[in-house]
Amino acid sequence: MITRRELLKTAAATGLIAGTGGLAMPSIARAATIKLGYVSPQTGPLAAFAEADKFIIDGFLAATKAAGLDYQVVVKDSQSNPNRAAEVTKQLIVDDEVSLMLVASTPETTNPVTTTCEAEEVPCISTVAPWQPWFIGQQGNPADPASWKPFKSAFHFFWGLEDVIAVYTNMWAQVETHRHVGGLFPNDGDGNAWGDKVVGFPPVLDKGGYTLNDPGRYQNLTDDFSAQINAFKSANCDIITGVMIPPDFTTFWNQAQQQGFKPKVASIGKAILFPQAVEALGKTGNNLSSEVWWTPSHPFKSSLTGDSSAQLAEGFTKATGRPWTQPIGFVHALFELAADVMKRADAGDNAAVINAIAATKLDTIVGPIAWNGANLPPFAAKNVTKTPLVGGQWRLKDSGGYDLVITDNKTAPNIPTGGKMEAIA
Fold this sequence. Notes:
The protein has 14 helices and 15 strands.
């Protein structure tokens, strides 16, 4: 029994399906629905990353339908669980026979999806995970660089650890400190990469004159950070950094306040990307800092709708009544890439889709995307492209709630700053 994928591949090879170019007329627009798979953590401790998924997908379907295109997006929830992510990816490949897999939000989701797609030779585009835990974390021997191999069907766009370290240290340099840093690195894909003694924070901080106190890996959803807090107190740490899931940082920060530990700077990845996570801390969230991947002030437009970053953020708030969040831009860019790739490839031909991804050159809502190896080591050049990164602080508003103020843009001067770093009171 011939499958839909085999039918389309045969039709393309015999000339029954002809590419015509242009967004309005992809190569199989008149032959079949183009089916995309999408996996993200819609429930569980990482659910905040997927808050804008429905808004983005509804907008994508409306835009492509208006252009005369027939897309279907089959959405699956990873439940913030790597095993579940791999399971639903298999379903999308075997049962739904998607032509292109899209996945977003932390290595716990991106990596199992990518690994499954690579094994099945299904084209995959992923984002919202630093490229090192994505690429290195999927290697057979992550500790042996000589054994690392490029992927055949998987492609990733985001920033890297080198970028977030540069942003953090640029922000820290604006505040007078002892340069003693406490590290909070969980036992997961992000934490193991950020705390790695070769590719993570330790060697760079040491070279920059910082002293890192790393109490070791802890398990996600830990309910007692007393050991870490006591270690940081003993080491006279006045800077805290790490990459934590939102509930863990809330626990740590509340316990730190209760135990009298008040650093001058706290730059935390992942946990305080979202306004609701900072608002949950009350006034103690003021001047917490983090990496900033996308904001309404980013000077980019959507290739799909023509909307500016400000218009996309405004549209989300108008549709949902909620404040904008950083993943909005990157999830939107995923679907921009899908539209661009699928107009250049036959949906039934995996190899053609993979080649189209590799040849991408597109200006998106998060900046230019092209898998051209720029600013990357040779081993990652084929599969990774980097996006700009800046740093910011959450500032408590007189009216309540928080604003995210960009305080460092040395790594991306085209993204405007809104203020300077301030010490935590």
